[in-house]
Design brief:
Elements lengths: L8 H19 L17 H10 L7 H15 L6 H17 L2 H26 L4 H82 L3 H29 L16 H12 L4 E8 L8 H21 L3 E10 L2 E9 L14 H12 L2 E8 L5 E10 L8
Parallel strand pairs: 1-2
Antiparallel strand pairs: 2-3, 3-5, 4-5
Helix pairs in contact: 1-2, 1-4, 2-3, 2-4, 3-4, 4-5, 4-6, 5-6, 6-7, 6-9, 8-9, 9-10
């Protein structure tokens, strides 16, 4: 089954203009040569019509059109000739370079140059006059000049295509960066939301259970006080996060928590866990060692906050110790709590706390570990230990 390819409208226009111009020249009796083998004037119309027809193939089959056009131009030399035929042939050479295969685009200019040189030398040796050089010039104008023009146009077109491809690739990379940035921001928001709210909600869940299970007005009142305090604090934290996400309109957002806020955090954790038999203490061995980068302080604060939340959920009655230390360019954060044999947590959890801590530490290029350890007196405790580099140059972006 054969499929026909409709010629481009520009090719039809070129063919029509070339044929019409050739007919006008023929009617006016203007010919390129005389005294040829086929001296009848109407014979010049045959190469003219064939070349005009080949113009319809200049895009769809440029190499075929060039081969047939070359044979037609040679045949035209045996007639009285037409300038329109020669001009349309130059367009076939140009189209073969521009629309042909890359290999053809390389071969055609070389072939045209060799033909021009051969024709010039051949006619110069035959006629032995300087006028023979004109034949070589005309041959170069008909074949080599349009081939070189086609090479230039094709190179510009390829360069434009490469530029468009690079622009598309740049746009694709920009979109990938945007998607990754959105994903990273969502992960950061999820960590912030979990770290801020989980502590308060865990305390609310534990004390509401105590208020419901213990039939004592004093205990219930104390539990409701803790519940109210954590509800208010949790709501304030949520408002702070929402304020950071919303367009502030020029207002300065609330500052992120720092290590200076650890005293308040430890005090709140002690108040929330008093009924569970936990005593929370803070030992800061990094005081007076200079300011820390904001991301390091935020990560350390969140690690302590999440560790205290987990202790409130899982730890056995006993001490919960928070220790900070700095050695050289490393900030060490440790939170230890008693490891008991409770059948389950005091409050439900999502299991995302340790994952969030690991992500924070990984972004800073630090290390973190969490697991049971044995003390000298045989007691077992759960220890979370993180080491965070404190130099700005070590932070990963």
């Amino acid at each position: 089954m054969f499929t026909s390819v409709r010629p481009h409208r520009h090719d039809v226009l070129i063919a029509a203009v070339g044929l019409t111009g050739g007919l006008i020249l023929w009617l006016a009796g203007l010919h390129t040569q005389g005294g040829r083998l086929l001296s009848a004037h109407w014979m010049a119309l045959v190469p003219l019509a064939v070349t005009a027809g080949l113009e319809l193939l200049r895009r769809s089959a440029p190499q075929t059109a060039l081969v047939l056009g070359t044979l037609t131009l040679v045949a035209d030399q045996f007639t009285t000739g037409s300038l329109a035929t020669a001009l349309m042939y130059t367009d076939l050479v140009y189209a073969a370079v521009v629309y042909g295969t890359p290999a053809a685009a390389r071969r055609i200019p070389v072939t045209a140059f060799l033909v021009t040189v051969a024709v010039t030398i051949g006619f110069l040796a035959w006629y032995r006059t300087a006028e023979a050089l004109l034949i070589g010039v005309v041959t170069g104008l008909v074949s080599f000049a349009p081939a070189i023009t086609g090479v230039s146009v094709r190179n510009h077109r390829d360069a434009a295509g490469t530029a468009r491809l690079r622009a598309d690739q740049t746009a694709l990379l920009a979109e990938m960066d945007r998607v990754q940035a959105v994903t990273a921001e969502r992960s950061r928001m999820a960590r912030e939301l979990h770290d801020m709210v989980a502590n308060h909600l865990s305390a609310i869940a534990i004390h509401s259970t105590a208020a419901l299970s213990i039939d004592d007005p004093g205990t219930s009142r104390e539990a409701l006080g803790v519940i109210r305090r954590n509800s208010v604090d949790g709501l304030a934290e949520m408002r702070r996060l929402i304020g950071l996400l919303r367009d502030s309109g020029g207002d300065t957002p609330s500052a992120a928590p720092t290590l200076a806020s650890l005293d308040a955090l430890v005090g709140q954790a002690g108040a929330n866990s008093g009924s569970s038999g936990l005593t929370v203490t803070l030992t800061d061995g990094g005081e007076g060692t200079g300011a820390l980068p904001a991301p390091v302080e935020l990560a350390a604060y969140r690690i302590v906050q999440e560790s205290l939340t987990n202790a409130l959920k899982h730890a056995a009655p006993g001490p919960v110790t928070v220790r900070l230390g700095r050695s050289g360019n490393v900030l060490t954060v440790e939170v230890s709590s008693m490891l008991g044999d409770r059948p389950g947590p005091r409050a439900p959890g999502s299991g995302a706390g340790l994952v969030g801590m690991r992500e924070r530490v990984a972004l800073l290029g630090g290390t973190i570990g969490a697991g049971p350890v044995s003390g000298r007196d045989g007691t077992k405790s759960w220890l979370v230990r993180a080491e965070l580099p404190v130099e700005e140059g070590t932070l990963r972006t």
